## 1
Amino acid sequence: MINWESKLQDYCEKINASHAGLAKLEGPRTWLQYQSWLEKGFAGEMEYLKTHAEIKKDPSIWKPHLRSALVVAFPYIDHPEPHHILSSTRTALYAKGFDYHFWIKSKLQILIDELQVLYPNEKFETHTDSSPLLERDLAQRAGLGWFGKNTCLIHPQKGSLFLIGEILTSLEFKLKTDPLPDFCGKCQKCLEVCPTQAITSPRILDATKCISYLTIESKKIPPEDLRNKMGDWFFGCDLCQTVCPWNQKVFKGRLQASPFLALNEFEEKKLIEELRWILKSSHHQILKKVKGTPLHRAGAKGLKRNALVVIGNKKIKELAPEVQALTENSFLGELAFWTLQQLSPKED
Ligand code: B12
Ligand code: SF4
Ligand code: SF4
């Protein structure tokens, strides 16, 4: 008979996970919140979130033979799989490492290889992010954290800067994990810091306003009223997490929650060269460079779009010729004009 509590600790050490828990693979407790979020149009262009809805409500439609989930939290400070591509740009901390869809699954596979020996007749599968599961709900039920007002799952000793992955299995676990209590209290720091006011009320995030969505998921040019608010973020955004006192406590002094990153002269020059490279390179060159990293998801067009927003907001005049060259571009032209406007001094 396995003692799951100590087994989970051993497993975490083996694969550099911070914590793990067990949950039944069943309908989520927060289904109604998800449904109302979709109805409000907060998913924007992320059509797959609507297509997946029925499966999320009842995972047995999708995996009738699977009963449980072993849910694992993978911290990304320090990043376990770092890359140094376009390293001067302000990129979300999780994206400073290689694409987690690959490395998380391969780490979970190490555990499956062990479990399969113990339970040769049971089924095991690895999943993370892209599967039709409400992962925060699953992880909350497995005791990995509470739903912060920024919507992220937070653990009192581990913070929220972790990714979630899971092993789904036909096994039925006997261990019952109690969800953690909510420790947000009266704090509102995440709502206050969000530059685009994307967190419309505690635990409700209008993704169409979130910088993470605008720079990663959206295939469009950001609406004009949000462009200035996107600041220097090139890919993703961490502000509502880095400002969080629970992360500040865990990662003492290591997290930046300022609206613009302070760069020294050398870093500023390097950033300008990286942005110049993005604007001047072909789609093929860009995709080749970012292959295997999360940056690939935005596509070459998306990364050029993000570079233009950063150049405009940081007023990088040195890049005016490269921006000018994009004003005839069918996708980027209007944004390139906006960027040029930000670079020229305002008349009274
Ligand atoms: C779509 C998506 C996004 C969208 C929308 C995010 C959102 N908050 O809705 C965008 C592109 C904006 C995004 C951004 C980010 N994402 Co994302 N994303 C997803 C994805 C694919 C689906 C999330 C979803 O269904 N959203 C809809 C809302 C309604 O659901 P939810 O976010 O899960 O929120 C739950 C709680 O808020 C709760 N809830 C809502 N209201 C209420 C009210 C009460 C009273 C209670 C108790 C609970 C509650 O119920 C919701 C449903 O379970 C998941 C992976 C997955 N398969 O689940 C990753 C995931 C949520 N993302 C993740 C990460 C890391 C990020 C970013 C940090 C990346 C970055 N730095 O740029 C940011 C964080 C932004 C933020 N504050 O959420 C991690 C979260 C890890 C964690 N510790 O929480 C996940 C789980 C991916 C993974 N496998 O690790 N993401
Ligand atoms: S990730 Fe950034 S833009 Fe999105 S909700 Fe958090 S602070 Fe706001
Ligand atoms: S910043 Fe405050 S309100 Fe927001 S998630 Fe952290 S503790 Fe909760």
## 2
Amino acid sequence: MKTYPFLKVLIKLYWLLLLIVLGLFTVTITNTFLSEETDKTIAVTTTSKTNFSTISPELLGSVAAGKKLFRTNCATCHNKNMKSDMTGPALAGVRARWSDYPESDLFAWIKNATKLIEAGHPKAVEIYTKWNKVPMTAFNNMTEAEVTAILDYIDSVK
Ligand code: HEC
């Protein structure tokens, strides 16, 4: 048969063409799949950026941090209902009671009451005398943010 070699070439070409088409098809599918994967990765990254666990307690809410600090440092002497006296006075409305003085005085009291009493601060001496000179623990290492958080928490308890 004279046409046989020609047909053989034609069949070979046919297979080659089919492989090219299949190859292109595979590449297109793979690309679509990959770009979808990339989109998913971006979406996950964006979500984790707003994940609450990455936000510091101060930003999440001073009150939540303040509650924790109050429970561990102050609740042994100050009632957590803020209304009844215990070893120390009820703390509800404490900011208002100190409002004749700059708030830094109240901060100074919480950080080191004895220091303020010894310095002769009128408000400090007044409470100390009223409370039969029971000394309050000093919290020298407490930061401004932590004291603010505790005071915000005290204000939030109704
Ligand atoms: C060992 C007990 C004790 C602990 C712990 C304690 N306090 Fe006191 N606190 C007192 C006493 C007692 C007074 C009353 C004044 C005095 O006698 O020194 C007082 C007074 C105060 C006052 C003044 C109240 C007013 O009416 O003006 C504030 C504010 C205060 N405490 C905040 C705190 C905070 C905040 C903490 C925790 C970080 C804390 N205290 C921990 C015993 C304590």
## 3
Amino acid sequence: MTEPFYEMLWDCAQCGAKGLLGVSHRHCPQCGAAQDPASRYFPEPGSEVEAKHHRYTGVDWRCTFCESPNSAAAAFCVNCGGPKDGAKDVKLVADGPEPAGPQAVTALKPQPMGSPVAPQTAFPKLTGKPPQASPTGSLRWLTIVVGLVFAALAVLAYQFFTKHDETVQLADKAWTREVDVERFTSLSTSAWCDAMPGDAYQVTRKREQRGSKQVPDGQDCRAVRTDAGDGSFTQRQECSTRYRDEPVYDTRCHYRVNRWQVLRTDKLAGNASLMPAWPQPLLAGPPAGSMGLSGGTALLGADRLGSKREQYQVTLQSAKGKQWTCKLSADRWAALAEGKPVTLKVRGTGGADCDSVMQ
Ligand SMILES: [Zn+2]
Ligand SMILES: [Zn+2]
């Protein structure tokens, strides 16, 4: 045996003696009652008593006649002499977070064979949870609320997908076109040096925290105790590694780099009376791709045209005065003539299906 065995404790239900030893006291030293294996429990940590010279032969069996625990090595009950045949092993005690007192109380069956010292009285039943209000009431409410939400969603979905045709007038046609103007600019920025662009200049390097890593930082250990089932238990240490965060440093590059930046956005807007046209921004500074530098590299301060965007919109009005605004493609917008009625599909929710605009 490599591990030492320790004494489980038990309390005598007959006379109330507490903290009796599971291996050494098979019977209560005060009143002689047989040990009830169901009353075994683990001692408070630190107050373990080693079961010296204990030879482990297996889990105790429980006498079918008098409920007494008997060593696995015994063929007959030490208490009443009953045979081992058909007897069951005693229940093992789980090591809970608070090893205080018996954790499970099992009522003892009346014994078929009379025995003067068999413990008849079970422990007072542990009080259960206080009676609670029936959960069916709140469950019913929850069902009703969920049902109502689903019903509301179903109505909304129905209204969204149900459309009716409406004949409307074109109240307004509007367009906007915009162009970005970009300037070749010297930017001050930073990046981790392994990701710095090749054309960076005026570089300064600094050590900065890039992230963190988990490093081992000692161990958390606890004793795991196992009921051997014969009034003794074994105990071993279970340890897990504890970790802490440690910062990871890297070199950060602070640098300047020349990039095209949006300087401003020029915009033109109009209605049906004005043909859509693109703004013509004035570009300042040295022209891009000229002078001195090789490969058409722009000079700082040069301007160029950036991205373009356009938007076409109509306002539609019903005879009752209700208005809808729709964004359309340039072609569909251009095809709509003012003064002619337009058909529009209107959803049950009141919104317009802008894809349905037709003349
Ligand atoms: Zn006793
Ligand atoms: Zn017995």
## 4
Amino acid sequence: MTVLALPARPRALIFDLDSTLYTDTAYARFQTEVLVARLATTRGESVAATEAALARLRAERAASGSGATSLGNLFAALGVPIEESVRWREELIEPADWLKPDARLDAALAALGRDYRLALVTNNPRSVGEKSLAALGVRSHFPLIIGLDDTMRSKPDPRPFAYAAERLGLEARDCVSVGDREDVDLVPALELGMGAILVAGVAEVYELDVILKSARG
Ligand SMILES: [Mg+2]
């Protein structure tokens, strides 16, 4: 866990979902593969050809000094509107097929929920976020879930983070973003003035309450 920035008195924690609230590389890979396969079908080409097109885009971004971006933004660059990405994800991703209740996460979020308001900001549609939290057995801890379809902007666009703060009725400086990808989950939050904590997976979320309590002294 790396605490990149922490406000003096944080009031809300804004969590990423995938590889933050659960760690399952097979599920993460499945989500990418199923969406790339759908894109290949739409483009009338092989999966390998679509993967090559995505690799070219990533290389161009790297060469121009742009940071990493989301799959949704790469798809948009290949002509798939975000609205279409939302529909594909709703159709193709069934969290309950992959995720099971996590009692340690439940306990960790219950403890955090006593000191902070908890929100989810995911690049999946809100319905997929809700189903994921339900499958993990932690839905009740999250009064606010912001999905891709709420702002039609995909992290690292800062708008989903700004919208979360607005919906919480808080200033950015009152919020801390918690996620597994620095470029996507943390840099845009930091640019808004939020705190930011990098986690390597859900095991570090189990420890977050202790880390925050010790950081606050
Ligand atoms: Mg993630």
